[in-house]
From TrEMBL:
The lineage of its organism: Bacteria, Bacillati, Actinomycetota, Actinomycetes, Propionibacteriales. The keyword Phosphoprotein does not apply. Gene3D superfamilies: P-loop containing nucleotide triphosphate hydrolases. Residues 7-247 form the ABC transporter domain. This is ABC-type lipoprotein export system ATPase subunit.
Length: 281
């Protein structure tokens, strides 16, 4: 059984330096994921989700802030240490099954290829057939990828991500190009892996059905944590500097600059906006 890895980020900032201008993709992300959690990352297009996944996997380095994965400080690790981490303990599934697969190799050969770096240091790697069987696609183990359905391809990409029994799987939109049945199957297998092997799973999704299925979701907005969900219920999260980001659906009603007051009422707070100096009560 793999042991799930924790994730902790503190004040994570990432700036892309492009010709002519800089883009701040993340501007202060504090995120905690417990070992063995199954968590969704939500947020509008361009909000920084893929950037966060790449940073957690150590694909590139943050401009500022710290990242811990398990006992490793990813933000301070050497390239060699990061290579070792990705070869055995952390898997990043890129969006689009094909980007994770060798096109001319069978599913079983793809899994074996993904194990080659870990084989030098680890002896207890699962057999490719065992992994494909766990994911319900043993019957396609030796078929060419060209003959597989989109769902089977995505499950093959998942088998590749699980090839070394990592403690953390980062999956960027693993269900986005699938029909409903294949989507539900991939989701169900991810949840099974999480339950059975204790693997920490973080997945990016735009799909409300997937979000509702997940016990916890975190929403990124404008490069920051903008909210959290618990089984479909949305919460705003107070940030380290005491700010409270508005849930997305309130942003039009309460544009920047709106004055609001907090009224304590029977153990909870009412948020009262003032428009043009007149209390909106
Ligand atoms: N290589 C890059 N160079 C410059 N800017 C980039 C690069 N990659 C991403 N960005 C910018 O960084 C911001 C965050 O992008 P990112 O891809 O992380 O968002 P996302 O939430 O994953 O979006 P999507 O849901 O569309 O995949 C965007 O403004 C994007 O244009």
């Amino acid at each position: 059984m793999s042991t799930g890895l924790l994730i902790r980020t503190h004040g994570l900032v990432h700036i892309y330096h492009t010709e002519g201008h800089d883009v701040a993709a993340l501007s202060g992300v504090d995120l905690d994921v417990r070992p063995g959690e199954l968590m969704g990352l939500l947020g509008p297009s361009g909000s920084g989700k893929s950037t966060l996944m790449g940073l957690l996997a150590g694909i590139f380095r943050p401009s500022a802030g710290k990242i811990f994965v398990g006992s490793h400080e990813v933000s301070a690790a050497s390239s060699k240490e990061l290579d070792r981490l990705r070869a055995s303990q952390v898997s990043l599934m890129l969006q689009g099954a094909g980007r994770n697969l060798l096109p001319y190799a069978t599913p079983a050969a793809n899994v074996r290829f993904a194990q080659r770096a870990a084989r030098r240091t680890s002896t207890g790697l699962p057999a490719a057939e065992e992994l494909l069987d766990e994911l319900g696609i043993a019957q396609v183990a030796d078929r060419p990828l060209a003959g597989l359905t989109p769902g089977e391809l995505q499950l093959t990409a998942l088998a590749v991500a699980l090839a070394t029994r990592p403690g953390l799987v980062l999956a960027d939109e693993p269900t986005s190009q699938l029909g409903h049945d294949a989507r539900d199957l991939v989701l169900e297998r991810l949840a099974w892996i999480n339950r059975t092997h204790g693997t920490t799973v973080v997945l990016v999704t735009h799909d409300p059905h997937v979000a509702a299925f997940l016990p916890r979701t975190v929403t990124i907005r404008d490069g920051r944590i903008g909210g959290e969900g618990r089984s479909g219920e949305e919460y705003a999260v107070v940030t380290a500097d005491g700010s409270l980001p508005l849930p997305g659906h309130l942003r039009d009603a309460l544009p920047p600059g709106t004055l609001v007051r907090f009224h304590p009422v029977d153990g909870h707070y009412e948020l009262v906006p003032e428009h043009e100096g007149v209390a909106d009560e």
